[in-house]
Amino acid sequence: GDHAFDQKDLLSYVEREPRIIRPLNYAREAPGRGHAVVEDRRGRKVLVAQALGQVFMSRPYDDPFSALDTVLRAHPPGGMVCAAIVDIHAEATSEKMGIGHFCDGRTSLVVGTHTHVPTADAQILPRGTAYQSDAGMCGDYDSIIGMEKTEPLRRFVTGMTRDRFSPAEGEATLSGVLVATDDRTGLATAIEPVREGGRLMQTHP
Question: Would you identify the CATH topology of the domain 10-136?
Answer without folding.
Answer: Purple Acid Phosphatase; chain A, domain 2 (3.60.21)
